[in-house]
Amino acid sequence: MITVDIKNKLVEVVGEQYVFTDQETLNDYGKDHTEDLVFPPSIVVKPASTQQVSAIMKLAFEHAIPVVPIGARTGLSGGILAVHKGIGLSLERLNQIIKIDEQNLQVITQPGVITEVLQNAVAEKGLFYPVDPSSKGSCFIGGNIAENSGGARAVKYGVTKDYVLNLEVVLPNGDIINTAANTLKNATGYNLTQLMVGSEGTLGIVTKIVLKLIPAVQHNVLLLVPFFKMEEAAVAVSAIFRAGIVPSALEFMERDAIDWTMKFTEVPDLNLRPEIEAHLLIEVDGNYPEILMNEAEKILTVVEQFQIDEVLFADTQDQKNALWKLRRNVAEAVKQNTVYKEEDTVVPRYELPKLLIGIKAIGEKNGFKSICYGHAGDGNLHVNIVKLDMTDELWQTKVPKGVKEIFELTKSLNGTISGEHGIGLVQKEFMSIVFSEIELHLMYQIKKIFDPKNIMNPGKIFPSDIN
Amino acid sequence: MITVDIKNKLVEVVGEQYVFTDQETLNDYGKDHTEDLVFPPSIVVKPASTQQVSAIMKLAFEHAIPVVPIGARTGLSGGILAVHKGIGLSLERLNQIIKIDEQNLQVITQPGVITEVLQNAVAEKGLFYPVDPSSKGSCFIGGNIAENSGGARAVKYGVTKDYVLNLEVVLPNGDIINTAANTLKNATGYNLTQLMVGSEGTLGIVTKIVLKLIPAVQHNVLLLVPFFKMEEAAVAVSAIFRAGIVPSALEFMERDAIDWTMKFTEVPDLNLRPEIEAHLLIEVDGNYPEILMNEAEKILTVVEQFQIDEVLFADTQDQKNALWKLRRNVAEAVKQNTVYKEEDTVVPRYELPKLLIGIKAIGEKNGFKSICYGHAGDGNLHVNIVKLDMTDELWQTKVPKGVKEIFELTKSLNGTISGEHGIGLVQKEFMSIVFSEIELHLMYQIKKIFDPKNIMNPGKIFPSDIN
C-alpha cells in the first residue's frame, strides 16, 4: 500500500529521520492502552508543523491512503489502532505551548503537549486548566480533544469540550481551517469546534488548540467515606448534590477496586474492615478554607444518613496524594492482575445504584466478575470485567453478551455507552444500542462531508454495517 | 405556493383553529425584534406535539415548501423572518415543562416555554438555570437553543450550549431523532447536540430539550462603578479576572446608554457627574455573604487603580432590581429614540478597549454615532449604531461600510461577528469576514446533509453567494 514513491514523498515532507518502517516502531505505534490489541500502521511519520501535517494529508488524499492520527497512545477504546494499515501520523513533535495569554485567560497550544505539563505551565501563572484525566501524566492534550476526555474534576469543572474555544484543523484533503474564534461566546455559524471535539480523529487532525483557563483555585479538602453497603454509596452521590454541594471530585470505588490496588500497586494499606463494600472519595475546593470545612461538614451530615465506617480526612498534601494515587492506580491494578475488558458506562447520576446493581446481576447471570469504579458525580462508572480463571470459551461468548446487556441497561436508564473513553474500535458494534439508524446515518454523512475518501482513521466509531 | 390542498392537509394535522392565513397574523409572525423588518410567511401553523411537527415537515418536504420555526419572536438577527415565504411554524403550543428531575438536577422541557418561567419553576425546587438573556421574560427556551443565547451571567455560568444535554429534533424530512443521552458526560459519536445549538432553525426543529441544572445560589452583591475614562472601564474588566475573581456578571455601559435609559424608560435617576464616561455593573454570587463582601472588596481594590467616582453598592433587592432594570432597558431606550442597527461583536476580553476605541474611530470616520454596552466579562459588546439626524442616504451607504469595518476589526482582534444574537438574516453577508470559503462550504455541506431540499429556514446564516 505504501509504495517506495510514497515513502520518498513522506521523507521529503518530514525528513528521513522522522519516517519509520521498522517493525518495532510500527508495533509501538500500533497499540494504545486498550486491552492487548495491536494493529500496526504500514509506516509511521512524525511531522513537526501544521504545514507538514497538511502536506502528508494532501499526499494521502491523492492516493487514498488511510491515516491514523496518533497522540500519546493512552486511549482506552482503540482509537489509534491502524485497523486498515496506512500512515500512522504521530503528533508528538507538535509539542509546543504556543502562548499562555494571562490577559485573556487562554492558552494556545499544539496537540502533542502532555496534559499535566500544560496544567503545570499555566499553574505557574496562577491559572487553572481543570480537566484532569487519570492519564494526565502521559496523555496529550490533542488526544483529550479527540476523545472529549473527562476525569475526576469534571463533576464541578466540566470536560474537555467545555474549555475548547477554537481549533486549527487539517482536513483529510490537506486544507487547513479554523473552527471558530478565540472568544468565550460565539453565535456565528455552526459549531464546528464541538463537532471536532470527541470525533476521535475521524474528521481531521487538530494542529492548534485554544483553551479557556480560569483563575487558580487555592484550597481543597479531601475525604474518603467507607460504606458498608455498595448501593448506599451510589445513593449518597446524588444526595450530596441535593444538599446544595457541588464537589470538585466525587469518585466511587467498590471494595475489590481498593483491595486490588492495595495489593498490586504501591499505595498505603487502609486497614479496611472486611464489611466495607465501597468508598466515595470526595473533594471540595475553593479559595476560602473555612468555607471548605463548612462544606465538608455538610457532606458528613449527608453521608452519616447511610451505614458508614469512620470517615478519613486527608490532612496533609501527602495524605491527599496517597488517596488520589489509590484512585488513579485502580486501572493499573486490574491490568496487572488479569485479562480484563473495560466499559465506560454513563447514566444520569441518580440512576447509578440501578446501574451498579444491574451490572452485578448481569455478571452473575453470565458468570463473570466485574470491578466497578469511576466518576460517580457524573454518573460515569468504569466497569472492568475481569477474566481471572474463566475459560477462554466462556470469556469469548459470555462477555460480549454481558457487555451488550450492560449497554442496554445503560440506555434504558437514559445513559449511553461511553462517558469519556470514546467509541474507537472496541465499542463501535454497540453504537446501534444507543443510536437509531437515522442518527448513525446522519453522523456518517457528516463524516463523508469531511472525509469523502474515508481515509481519516477509518474503521472507528461506526458499526461495520455502516463503514 | 401554499395551495388549498396543502392548507387542507395542514388543517388535518393541527386543526382548523391553528392554521392562519389572515394578513394580520401573517404580519405578526413575520417580524421579531430585529430593526423594523417584516417578512410574513404564507401561512402560520401552530402544532401541539412532536408528532404534529413531524407531520408538517413531512408535508413540507414532499412539496419542497420552506418552513420557518418560530419561537417568541424576540430575536435580534432576523432568524424567523420568512424571506422565502412558506410555512411559519410556531412552537408556542409546545409549552410544557415535562419534568423537573430533582434527583438528577435536570429539566426536560418543550421549546415553547418562556425562559423566565422555566427559571422560576426550577427555582421553586431549589435549583438554578443560570442562562439569563435580557429578553428572558418573553423569549422561549427553544429560541435560546436556536441562537445559543447568553446574557449577563454567562461570564460565570456559561451560555445556553453549556446546559443542553440532549435534544429531540424533527429533521426537515419529518424524521425524529435524539441527539445524545441525558448524561453530563458523553463520548459516544459526534456531538449532534452542539451542532443543533446555535444552528438558528436551519437544520431541524427542536421539540424537546434536556437541560442540566445546578443547585440554587443564595446570595449576591451588586455594585455599579462609574469611570471617568471609558477605556479604563474596559481595561478594568480583565484586571478583575486577573485578581482571581470570577464575577457572576460584569456589564459595561457607556455614558449615553445610561443617559438614554434614564431619559426614555422608567428607571431612577443616578445624578451622574457630567465627566463620567462609562459604568461597570458588577455582581458576585455565592452561598456565603461574608465571602461575597470579601470579593467585593477585592474588586474595589482593582477598580480603585483607575479614575473612578464613588462606587454604588446595591444594598436592597429593590436597589438591585433598579440597577438591573437600568441595564436591561438600554436596548429599549435606543429603540424608542431613533432608527438604529445593532451589532453583537465579541472579542477576547482583554481586547475590549481596542475594540471600543476602534468602533468610535470607525464611527467618526463614517459619520455615525454608536451606543455601546454589553457583557464585557465575556468580551461581548453590543454596538447600537444610531441614526438620529443622519440623512437616509448616509445611513444607507456609510453604515454598512462602517459595520464591515467594525467586523474586520473584531476579526483582527481574534473575535467574531456574533456573540449571542446569531447571524440570521441581517449578518449573513458578513460571514466571509470571519470564515474562509472552505469553512463556509463545510458548514453549508452539513446543512445539505440535514436539509437536502433547503426548506429549513432558508436564506439564513449563509451569504447569498452560497445559498
Task: Give a short synopsis of this structure.
Chain A is α+β, with helices and mostly antiparallel strands.
Features:
oxidoreductase (chains A, B), Uridine Diphospho-n-acetylenolpyruvylglucosamine Reductase, domain 3, 16 helices, FAD-linked_Oxase-like_C (chains A, B), Alpha-Beta Plaits, 467 residues, 4 domains, alpha+beta, FAD-bd_oxidored_4_C (chains A, B), homodimer, Uridine Diphospho-n-acetylenolpyruvylglucosamine Reductase, domain 2, FAD (chains A, B)
Give the arrangement of secondary structure elements:
2 copies of one chain form a homodimer.
Chain A: H1 4-14, E1 19-20, H2 23-28, E2 43-45, H3 50-63, E3 67-70, E4 87-90, E5 97-101, E6 106-109, H4 115-123, E7 127-128, H5 141-147, H6 154-157, E8 164-170, E9 176-178, H7 192-196, E10 205-212, E11 214-215, E12 219-227, H8 230-242, E13 249-254, H9 255-264, E14 278-286, H10 289-303, E15 312-314, H11 317-328, H12 330-337, E16 340-346, H13 352-366, E17 369-375, E18 380-386, H14 392-412, H15 431-434, H16 437-450
Parallel strand pairs in A: 2-4, 3-4
Antiparallel strand pairs in A: 1-2, 5-6, 6-10, 7-11, 8-9, 8-10, 12-14, 12-15, 13-14, 13-17, 16-18, 17-18
Helix pairs in contact in A: 1-3, 8-10, 8-13, 9-12, 13-14
Pfam family, one (chains A, B): FAD_binding_4
Protein name (chains A, B): FAD-binding protein
Domain FAD-binding PCMH-type (chains A, B): 37-216
